[in-house]
Predict the 3D structure of the following.
Amino acid sequence: MTRGWFKSSRSNPNGACVEINLDDPQFVRVRDSKNPTSGELRLPPIAWRSALRHGLTT
């Protein structure tokens, strides 16, 4: 089952946020919600967890 792209339920109402995709077990995919065709980051899950833990995504 795939979930596709999603963003936090706590996202800013002006749309300035990122979306993530967890469908690939090798990578957490991250993109700009305002410009989804501009490209994406692909981070190994351990790098994603580290970024969240250190607050680098805000």
Notes: The chain has one helix and four strands.
